[in-house]
Amino acid sequence: MKKKLIYLMIFGLIIGTYSCEDTFLQVPNVSGTANLTMVYSDSVNAFQAVMQCYDLSMVQGIGSPAVNSSTYVGRGCLGTLTDELCRGYSWDQNYANFSLGFDANGHTDDNYGLNFTAIRANWLVAENIDRVPDMSATGKGYIKAEVEGLNAYRYMGMFYRYGGVPIITKSFLPTDNSTVPRASLDSTLNYILQLCDNSIAGLPDTWPANQSGRLTKGAVMSIKARVLEYAARPLFNSATPYLDNGSHNNLICFGNVDPNRWQAAITANEAVLTWASQNGYALINTGGAGVNSPNPNAFADYGTATSTPGNQEVILAYKMDFQNVANIIVRNFNYSNYQTASRWDVALNGTLFNFFTNYYNADGTDPSQSWPHPGDAAPRPATDYTSRTAALEPRFHDDQVGPGFDPSYSTNPGDANWNVNGWGLDLDNHSASFPNGSYGLGCSYSVKFYYHAGSRLWMELPLFRLSETYLNLAEAYNEVGNTSKALENLNVVHNRAGLPSVTVSDQTQLRAIIQREWAIEFFLEGQRLFQIKHWKLANIGTQLLGGPVMEFQFKVTGASNNNLASHLVSYWSAITYSKYWNARMFLDPILQSEINKQIAVQNPGY
Amino acid sequence: MIKRNIFIITSCIFIGLIFPAFFSCLMAQQTDFITKSDSSDVSLLKQGITIPGSLFNTSQVNNTGAVSTVSSQDLYNTNTPGITNTLYGTLSGLTVNQGTGEPGSDQANLGIRGIGTYGNVGNGGYNTSLIYVDGFQVDPNYFYNMPQSEIESISVLKDAASLVTFGMNGANGVIWVITKKGVVGKPQMSFNFMSGIGSPENINKPLNSYGYATLYNQAISNDHGNVWSPYYSPTQLQAYQNGTGTNVDWYKQVLGNSSPYSKGNLKFTGGDVNTQYNILFDYFNQQGLYNVGNSASTSNEQLNKYSLGGNIAFKWNIFEAKIDINTRLEDRQTPNYTSNFSTTPIWNNLASYPNNIYPVYDDVLHQNYSGTTTYPNNPVGSLNGLGWQSNETRYLVSNFSLKENLDAVTKGLYLNESFSYFSNSLSTYNKTATYARYINGQTTTTDKTTPIVASSLAANSQEDWKQSNLTLGYDNQFGKNHLTSVVNYYASDFRGEYSNYIDQTSENISGRFNYTYDNRYVGEIGFSYFGYDAYAPGNQWDLYPAISGAWIVSNESFLKNNPVVSLLKLRASYGKTGENLTGLGIYNNGRYLYQQYYGGGGSFYTGNSTPVSNSTLNPLYLANTKIGPETSVKYNVGLDLTLLKKIDVSMDAFMDKRSGIVTLDNAIPADYGNNILYSNIGRMTNKGFEVTASYSDKVGEVSYKVTGMASYNQNTIDYMAETPTAFPYNAQTGQAYGTPIGLVATGFYQTTDFNPNGTLKSGIAVPAFGPVQPGDIRYKDLNGDGKIDQTDVTALGKPLFPELTYSFGGKVAYKGFDLNVLFQGSGDATVNLLSSNQTIPFVNNGTAYANALGAWAYYPEQGIDTRATATFPRLTTLGNANNYQTNSFWIKNNDFIRLRNVELGYSIPAELIKKVNFSKLRLFVSATNPITWSSLLKNYNIDPESYNGYPALKCINLGITANF
Q1: Gyration radius of chain A's alpha carbons
Q2: CB < 8 Å to A600, chain B
Q3: Interchain contact, B409 vs A3, CB within 8 Å
Q4: Residue B428 forms beta bridges with which residues?
Q5: Does B595 contact A36 at a Cβ distance shorter than 8 Å?
Q6: What DSSP string runs through A11-75?
Q7: Is the pLDDT of residue B37 over 80?
Q8: Using CB atoms, which residue from A2, A121, A180 is nearest to B408?
Q9: How far away is chain B from the Cα of A132, in angstroms, using its nearest Cα?
């Protein structure tokens, strides 16, 4: 009896133990955080993952956190790295880049790793979106096309920064062999074009108004057009690289000069124009003057095109945080008295004389040589400054404000927070005598993107504006020798700006004029740093990205508001400091820590 | 409050009044209670010694593992408020590091065999071991506050043989606690009571007002470009010097004379072969160091602890049932100026408020506390004016086991089922107020003096822990063969308060098979097949085997009756254990690294005139489906030796090879797109040895015993996927865990090193931390690039965790007297002075300490010139990035020896006490931590174990032990 009892007990215990073992080690109920399965189990979560892709992908060159620093790419975006803006305060991320040049320890305009963070997030969506049960097939198709387009956008940014980069075609698992070497420039280009074509095929032409900001067919066509334009420019479209990189020259150079690359750019840009005209996008030119005639409404039209959210000229914009005034990107573009988050941080980002001379006079004449230049024998009266600036073209007045400007010419007329009387910040380097050591306030201050903005602090930074397509075409047609098409496209932009048509037919002269048009039209829109490099301009190290920094300095009466015309006495142009340039900076460095992992190959010179 | 007082009074009456009533009515009991002075038969005890272990205990003969044990009588050797502070120098292989003396938070840090992993480093390498009480795992806090009277023995399980059955819980060692049980015999009662007075081991007071002001003048002048520009005028300095200026010794104002504590317990035990019982009541009370009374609106820091426990063992037919229940209440009360229940904020103020900031009170009536916006927290005001906080921790631990002896099936077979329920909860109750701060009759902050307000009783946290065992055992002897074997199934279900550790489950099928032949040869194999819920299905289970053996050489015929060698035993073990991710604080879901988690990102905006904010979900760390536990392969060889029946020596040498340490992989390329990947890729090696030796003898009526113990450990990080460093010498890899990596200081910059414009002369490496001045610390440019930066860092010394810990001491007994002495020390460790809040003067409006008196300064017109003699960098009132980098100037040797305990006892002769029905009556007086030898203490007046906050205590104790 005892034995039977014992055997029964043992049997019972073993069965009992065995039966509960299976479920005992299940993952406990963890509250709060979503895992991948949960994210793709309903469309609301999945959509949030898509929005994260946008957030990660489109911020490049605007506010991507720099390596080794919690600060952002820039006060005034990439402009501080070019001839556009002063370098800012010593603690600004770009200050060191400006003074010491790029290095492989994080002093560049880009966080190399964040490119792949965005790409990974994009692939994760592409790979998992089909799992969402409550989303239409159409919606899934759009999203897949969108994330491919975002990958194309991010690869485009890497393409003109680094040259050939690793081609990542999926989200890696830790078990994958992730040693992807840098692909050649040619393969990288082809991959981007492939991404673009896939994406264009799947995207809609338009989104509902509350969804605008997402990629459309036209946006990705614009990506493709810009990539091909950069591929055709002389930095890459060359038999020899800017610096020898030994056996890795194919990472930074195509190895031949091929005019067909310009032809490919033309085709892609013409396609954008065609799409634009079919979908209601057009350059804003309300003057009705037609071809080859200056637009009388240039001030309003250019202002609207660069500032009004969702205007018909902008194919894709980065819509910045509109509620959070502390948003670091916004607050470095907005200098008005409405911006209270960090009024003083925006100082020392004045527009440099190096750039200032690009502006035409409103009548189309070139004033660049008549400004005071460093080394002039004596300062000029301040009235010279006010009268000369008053004569400048409308785009200057849309984009810049300086001491002594007539407030009625302001982009926000009648608004005390937007005029120099109520500015509350100094707009000029000044002292009671010459020479003096003040610097940083340049020749004027940027008010771009805030035409008729009033108290609206948020802004849209245009990523693709139709002017780009015209200038792309002007540049490409000029390179292939089609002067008439080049002039036709150039003048669409030039006339819209209120200027008389350009008629120069010499290819070299016209090239310089087109490049000058790029500079003015796209001030602070983030392309100049790369265009200067890809054009391989001769004065890159002496005027544009390196060399002496020139600014105006004013003598003032010493009264309280140094911005008022009545307080300005005289001014001159001075060299205030120098910028570093080295030929290696034609392309960005790959991070040294990546090189140490012995997978990536460094660009030459770093 | 009133209720509590009544309970305290009742307890006191119970112990103090009712107890003596037993004097006259209880029968004297003849017991074999082993007292600490019984040293005559130490060697002979060996045969009967039980070595506690998982699944079954072993004997001195068949044990194959490395286990050190301290039994209850030795634990009583040291009288301290908490159990962990009795462990210094008693367990070989256990490094014990003294914590604070704060009532209820005074647990020492415990580390078994050094640091084996950088994965879970606990508290600086300490407190990574799991703690088991009576075979079930407990929350460490439960153990830290266990009354000494509850504990029968504490063992440290160190090697593969003793740890293998713990599977994924075993790699960092186990502290194995056995509580007291009923013993067969007539009813016994014992009573212990002791009282002690604790005082700070060391307090490093800042300079007085004169010293502070004098140095401040230097510091501010240095900040003004070495131009003499004093802040304090000669008149002010004179006032400080002659005592008319404000000079408040804040420590003196805030601290009382001592921290008294007392504890007592009553215990009943007895039983026959079928039924045994043990009943315990223990009470503990400790008052904090503060100079504040206990009233409705103020409270000193204090701890009241009540423990009630009982166990019963019952035998019937084939069944043996045991029930063991322990409950404990821990009532803590502190002034309402705490962080995480600790009064550290007061100590931070004491360490940083200069003496001259203001008098304690702003008015002659002493109604208004002084305070400024810079120094808002008047330490006296914070102590008296903020009210108090209290919290109560309640533990209920109940274990039940039922054993069936299955001799009917086959002799020696048994089955055992046991179940443990561990529960704890913490609730808080506060009475709070605020006080206004005044200067010259004007309030300086927005605080207003408010009446005291009571909070409601709030539950703060709780834990439930259910554990169960199902054991099949077989223990039998056939002639010279002895087999002890057990197979066990264990399941654990933990439910705790931490949001991501809400529920943790694990299962363990383990076993041990110990075979002994002729008391000469022992072989043992053990295993664990362990499953844990943190890993991907299919990856949850892992097998841990171990093999071990012993050879009792002294039982061989050639040594059997050797007069010199009484015992010679060789041991060896080899096996594998593991370590789970639990406690790895990475992101919110560190336990589930195999899952791709998402967190909230920023917002992305769409739309035109009224943009729409779209929430985003951001993929977090890279999921690693292969993630699993860390693996430890342990090797151990040991030797036990007894010579002449007087000398006992035990030695162990070990090596622990860790692999699969969960590590942030810094080597993965950026093109992964997510560089936060935790993988099982880290490797470490830890090795060392332990020696214990004792010699005991008797000369006439004097019996004595001398003991010594040393533990040494040394670890190396073999691989940690470090971000590739610029130079090999920058790396942490290849160094011991915790090795300070920093710049090499070569002295101070001198005036001659600078150009007239203040820049460094050419040829002198330029620091990347900002401009330097004469008197700043100068560093070696290791890579010779003319810049001092993070590429010039290198290993600067030993880690803080000591490589060597040792102890020595002795006992002497003569007639009824016994004397006990224990010294304990540690060596091969360094400390970074910057980790103490008493090192950097003036920064963040702090005060200054005596160390700053040696600062570099050169003001010839003021007669100040320490250029040649400086022992401290130039003073500054600003944060000085150059001087306060981790660098060799601040790294100091941290070796020390303490006299941990000295105790004199007197047992009243048995003949005398027999008449009043005592079997034993002993009185004792003791001192813990009375003397410390340490260069850190000598040179910097900083205690080698407690650098900041509430100080460690030294105690004088008085006590009585009575058995009936």
Answers
A1: 28
A2: 669-670
A3: yes
A4: B391, B458
A5: yes
A6: HHHHHHHHHHHHHHTSPP---S-EEHHHHTTSHHHHHHHHHHHHHHHTTTTTTPBPTT-SSBS-T
A7: no
A8: A2
A9: 15
Distance CA A296, CA A285 (A): 9
Q: CB A24 to CB B505 under 8 A?
A: yes
Integer Cα distance of B85 and B99 in angstroms:
9
List the single residue in B318, B592, B672 with the smallest CB-CB distance to A27: B592
State chain B's maximal CA–CA distance in angstroms. 103
Do B889 and B876 touch, CB atoms closer than 8 A? no
| Residue A398 DSSP SS3 | helix
Q: Where are the beta strands (DSSP E) in B125-173?
A: 130-133, 136-137, 151-157
Residue B590 binned pLDDT confidence (cut-offs 50, 70, 90): low
Residues B249-297 have pLDDT tens digits of: 999 999 998 999 999 999 999 999 999 999 999 999 999 999 999 998 9
Q: Could you list the beta-strand ranges (E) of B700-803.
A: 702-719, 741-742, 745-748, 766-767, 777-779, 787-788, 794-795
- Which of B406, B617, B626 is the best substitution to test chain A (most A C-beta atoms within 10 A)? B617
ipTM of the complex: 0.86
* SS3 state at A90: coil
- For position B494, what pLDDT does the model report? 87
DSSP H helical ranges for A247-297: 260-278
Q: Which residue, among A405, A411, A426, A418, has the nearest Cα to A347 in the 3D structure?
A: A426
R_g of chain B, CA atoms, integer Å:
31
Q: Mutate one of B598, B622, B625, B665 to test the A interface: name it (highest A CB count within 10 A).
A: B598
Residue with more model confidence, B331 or B561? B331
From the list A519, A501, A496, A491, the residue with the least C-alpha distance to A300 is: A496
First to last CA, chain B: 36
To the nearest whole Å, the CA of B503 is away from the closest chain A CA by: 6
**What is the H or E stretch that residue B637 is in?**
strand B630-643
What average pLDDT is seen over chain B? 88
Nearest to A33 among B489, B589, B672 (CB): B589
Check the CA dihedral B880-B884-B889-B895 and report its sign: positive
Confidence of residue B242 (pLDDT cuts 50, 70, 90): very high
> What are the chain B neighbours of A116 within 8 Å (beta carbons)?
670-674
> Would you report the helix, strand and coil content of chain A in percent, each value rounded to 5?
45, 10, 45
Specify which residues B637 forms β-bridges with.
Answer: B572, B653
Partner residue opposite B611 with nearest CB, options A7, A178, A319: A319
Strand bridging mode A400-401 / A445-446: antiparallel
**Which residue, chain included where needed, has tokens 């415990």?**
B110
pLDDT for res B884: 92
Residue of A nearest to B609 (CA): A309
Spatial distance between the Cα atoms of B61 and B47, rounded to a whole number of angstroms: 7
> Would you state the structure tokens that stand for residue A157, as one six-digit string?
């940014």
Residue B196 identity: G
Between A596 and B871, the more confident residue is B871
User: H-helix or E-strand containing B241?
Assistant: helix B234-242
Q: What is the pLDDT of residues A49-74, one digit of tens each?
A: 999 999 889 888 776 443 333 334 54
Cβ-based contacts of A38 with chain B (< 8 Å) = 598
Contacts of A319 in chain B (CB under 8 A): 605-607, 611
Give the closest residue to A262 by CA, choosing from A298, A228, A289, A302: A228
Residue A165, both tokens: 């980069």
Q: What are phi and psi of B765, to 5 degrees?
A: -60, 140
Mean pLDDT, residues A506-517: 97
Kindly report the pTM of this predicted structure: 0.82
Mean of the pLDDT values across residues A117-129? 94
Neighbours of B517 (CB within 10 A): 13
CB B403 within 8 A of CB B433: no
Nearest to A594 among B404, B612, B669 (CB): B669
